[in-house]
Amino acid sequence: MPNAPQPHSPSPLKARRRGRAVVVVSVLLLLLGAGWLVRGWYAPPAPVVVNHSYAEALEQAHNGKPGAARVLYQQLSRTDLSDIRRAGLLAELGNYPSAQALKILDGDLKRPVPLVQQAAIDAVTNMVSNAQRSMLIGPLLDAPDQNVRFSAVRALTGLTPDDLGLYFSAFQEAADQYQNTLASQPPSGQSQIQLAKILVTQNAPRKALEALNLALKLEPNNIEAGVAQVQLLDRQGQMEQSRQQLAALLEKHPQSSLLQHELGTWLLRHQQNEYALLALAKAVELDADNTQYRYDLAVALHDLAQLEPAQRQLEEILQRQPANRRARTLLIDYWKENGQLQKVQVLLAELEQLNPDDPALQQGL
Q1: Sign of the torsion angle spanned by Cα atoms 237, 243, 244, 250
Q2: Angle at Cα 276 formed by Cα 160 and Cα 289, nearest 5°?
Q3: How many angstroms separate the CA atoms of 142 and 155, rounded?
């Protein structure tokens, strides 16, 4: 009986080819896996997750809504933020101080973008003490961009040599450059006002008065130049001449809120506090949205032991500008002084909602 046929078996050659294919596929898979692994090792860090838009963050910070500091910091941590938007956010940062805010400002002061650097200078000016301001802004006195350099000069003008510290010489040099630049330009009211401010820091009051006289000659209705002249004359001990100049300006511009405010501060400097209140209140009446005028009125009222009216002025500021940290912290002080601890707690709770890292909270204001 013949043998049954055996099943066909692959030849040794085909078996070897199939084995090689398996090896090749395995190696390719290993290489792909290694590639993905290496790519993961060297991949850039994931971008910060931002759950709100620029416009939302700006509105939240500007209007002092809960969580404002957090969203402001998050937006400023973005790497895709345009320069003009970054500058807009920095304009709000002064009301939200913290260690993180200072870190952001330090980075933006070093960012080689003049628009951002100038916005950061303004934010630092609003946020920190004089000595700390010079430490942050001082390096920009040598900035390659002239506008940034002169912005740094303006921000540091008026600081004492002790406040300027290590940057005193750099400030003097940059101030000289600024003075020479202003003097070489076609004169205008504003340029002469700035020149006068620099000349005062250079201990040249007579030249400063000449600059202000020129400003008023060029622009007879420039109230800012007139006020600067009043202040400089008073500072130089020429009280009667200062008073006459202020009276002449008020006669010409009786409805100027700036002049009414200057009259109030002039009277305060000369210990005529009760009369000063009338002028300061008039300035607020003429320019109700000017929070600086209202703040100064509150301080003057407080100094005359009129605590409740002072508190009302600060409360009005917060009604108009809930983000105004300066008014909020002063109102907390005044409520504490008056023994209104429940109101103090409310204001502190609101401040914590705005910015839980606010130094005032950390210090137990």
Answers
A1: positive
A2: 80
A3: 14
Q: How far is CA 91 from CA 32, 85, 161, 253, in A?
A: 49, 10, 28, 32
pTM of this structure? 0.82
Contact 134, 165 (CB under 8 A): yes
87: left (phi over 0), alpha (psi -120 to 50) or beta: alpha
Query: Taking the alpha carbons of 293, 297, 303, 309 in that order, is the dihedral positive or negative?
Result: negative
Distances (CA, A) of 221 to 207, 226, 337: 21, 8, 44
Unique residue bearing structure tokens 């805010």: 101
Which pLDDT tens digit goes with each residue over 272-306? 999 999 999 999 999 999 999 999 999 999 999 99
Among 320, 263, 268, which Cα is nearest to 291's? 320
pLDDT tens digits for 120-156? Answer: 999 999 999 888 999 999 999 999 999 999 999 999 9
To 10 degrees, what angle do helices 168-184 and 146-156 make? 120
**In what helix (H) or strand (E) does residue 170 lie, and over which residues does it extend?**
helix 168-184
Distance, in Å, from the CA atom of 108 to the CA atom of 119, rounded to the nearest integer, reads 9
Q: 313: closest CA among 336, 286, 288?
A: 288
CB atoms within 10 A of CB 271: 7
Q: Closest Cα partner for 93 from 65, 117, 62? A: 62
> Which among 64, 57, 63, 60 is positioned nearest to 85, based on CA atoms?
57
Q: DSSP string covering 313-334, please?
A: HHHHHHHH-TT-HHHHHHHHHH
**Contact at 8 Å (CB) between 294 and 284?**
yes
Per-residue pLDDT tens digits for 343-361: 999 999 999 999 999 999 9
Give the number of other Cβ atoms within 10 Å of residue 150's Cβ. 22
Reported for 182-186, long-range contacts at CB under 8 A and 24+ positions apart, including other chains, are: none
CA distance 248 to 240: 12
Computed on alpha carbons and rounded to an integer, the radius of gyration of the chain in Å comes to 32
